[in-house]
Write a structure and sequence with these properties.
This protein is of the alpha/beta class and 240 residues long. It is built from 11 helices and 5 strands. The longest helix is centred in the middle third of the chain and has 27 residues. The radius of gyration is 27 Å and the shape is elongated.
Length: 240
């Protein structure tokens, strides 16, 4: 995130807010500096004050849009910070080529909504299997790691087939047994997303909640596919 703001306190507060929301941020004091920094291509979004010395936020936005068009650059989202959003400044921002605007003082929740809309952060993806957990079991022996993983894959697929049969047959006792088995083996090898799904399945089945069971079957199948893909990749390309 690139922040352009001439007031040092506002600049410092805005940078802190952006950081709190999980984004890397750099700042400049005026529009001319912002234009030069934008040319580096390192930024995914620009947040700019409207009234700054040397080059206003409006002129900054117009200059960026002209250069994007002339040089075929990708369009960067530009969010204005304006103290007069209720008095027509919002429309002026959009007319200048900005994409959105925030009213000053900037509230964290409002900033979060705008950043999530224009530059969302992808949520971290938990790995299907944590290799560090298996390494704890085997003492870090690569050959033993692969053996444990191969056994887990085979047994897990067998148990998954039993779970499917139990669900298809509406046998709640067997759903409890299968989901509990898969949860335990998944926890043992560090397949925590699968363990979490099976925990929900087990709790729903113990409550006799078929709607709860069915609601988690899609997530179960997704984690099963992720585990099998992981195992296939690791087993077929073992470490040298």
């Amino acid at each position: 995130v690139l922040v352009a703001e001439d007031h040092p306190i506002n600049r410092s507060l805005l940078m802190r807010q952006v950081n709190l929301l999980g984004y890397a941020v750099e700042s400049v004091e005026n529009g001319a500096e912002a234009l030069e920094q934008w040319k580096s291509g390192r930024f995914g979004i620009l947040i700019t004050d409207c009234n700054m010395p040397e080059m206003s936020g409006y002129d900054l936005a117009r200059s960026i849009r002209e250069l994007e068009l002339a040089k075929g650059f990708a369009r960067i989202p530009i969010i204005a910070c304006t103290a007069n959003a209720l008095r027509g400044d919002g429309e002026t921002c959009i007319s200048a080529g900005m994409d959105d605007y925030l009213a000053k003082p900037v509230e964290l929740k409002g900033l979060a909504r705008k950043l999530d809309q224009w530059l969302p952060i992808a949520p971290p993806v938990t790995p299907a299997v944590d290799p560090a957990v298996i390494a704890e079991i085997t003492g870090g022996d690569p050959a033993a790691d692969l053996e444990v993983l191969a056994i887990f894959r085979r047994v897990n697929n067998e148990d998954a087939a039993l779970l499917k049969l139990a669900v298809d047959g509406r046998d709640i006792t067997k759903v409890i047994t299968a989901s509990h088995r898969i949860k335990g083996s998944s926890m043992a090898v560090g397949a925590m997303p699968m363990a979490a799904v099976c925990d929900r399945l087990e709790r729903a089945s113990r409550d006799g909640d078929w709607k709860g069971i069915e609601a988690n079957l899609g997530a179960f199948q997704h984690e099963l596919e992720r585990i099998n893909s992981y195992c296939e990749e690791v087993i077929c390309t073992p470490p040298i």
